[in-house]
């Protein structure tokens, strides 16, 4: 069964033929063939699926935008950082000055304060941190060689390393 709609009067008519001669209600000669009801249901399901996919993408975009807005950076600052990263000038520091790192030593985990961070000018730039304990002289450590081996960002990681050593 095929369904046709008359653009003149807006009424539907049904026929088993693939074509219709004209509107049986108003006599208009041009009729528009409509999709069968089962095609409409498939299209509605596809539209709903696409709508849900679009909502997921929109929510992801909103989340990313919210994270950007929470950073407090202006678009110009973001562009500067992106350019610095592309140029190889952006360095992510392992911790902040005044921050705390942990070092297992002699069966105990010591909490150390990061006094300063140094980036040297050798062939390959290296990051050094100077840490100190209240009762000892400051100590300079090359970060890439120390992190996760002798110096840790969390007490738990330092305690785990202490257990492995013993």
Q: What features would you describe in this structure?
A:
The chain is an alpha+beta fold and 166 residues long. The strands form two sheets. A four-stranded antiparallel sheet has the order 4-5-6-7. A three-stranded antiparallel sheet has the order 2-1-3, with no helix packed on it.
Largest sheet: 4 strands, antiparallel
Radius of gyration: 35 Å
Structural shape = rod-shaped
Q: In DSSP terms, counting alpha (H) and pi (I) runs of 4 or more, how many helices?
A: 4
Strand order of the largest sheet: 4-5-6-7
Helix percent reads 25-40%
The poorly predicted ranges are none
Could you report the average pLDDT, rounded to the nearest whole number? 85
Q: What string gives the helices and strands in order?
A: EEEHHEEEEHH
Give the CA-CA distance, first to last residue: 83 Å
Structural class category: alpha+beta
- The count of strands amounts to 7
Percentage of β-strand residues? 15-25%
């Amino acid at each position: 069964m095929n369904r046709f709609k008359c653009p003149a009067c807006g009424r539907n008519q049904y026929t088993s033929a693939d074509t219709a001669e004209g509107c049986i209600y108003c006599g208009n000669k041009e009729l528009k063939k409509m999709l069968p009801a089962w095609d409409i249901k498939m299209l509605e399901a596809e539209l709903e699926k696409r709508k849900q996919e679009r909502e997921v993408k929109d929510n992801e975009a909103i989340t990313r935008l919210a994270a950007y807005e929470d950073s407090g950076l202006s678009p110009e600052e973001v562009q500067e950082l992106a350019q610095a990263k592309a140029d190889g000038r952006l360095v992510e520091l392992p911790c902040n000055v005044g921050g705390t790192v942990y070092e297992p030593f002699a069966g105990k985990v010591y909490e150390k304060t990061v006094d300063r961070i140094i980036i040297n000018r050798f062939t390959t730039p290296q990051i050094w941190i100077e840490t100190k304990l209240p009762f000892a002289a400051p100590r300079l450590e090359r970060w890439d060689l120390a992190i996760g081996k002798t110096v840790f960002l969390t007490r738990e990681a330092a305690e785990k390393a202490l257990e492995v050593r013993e």
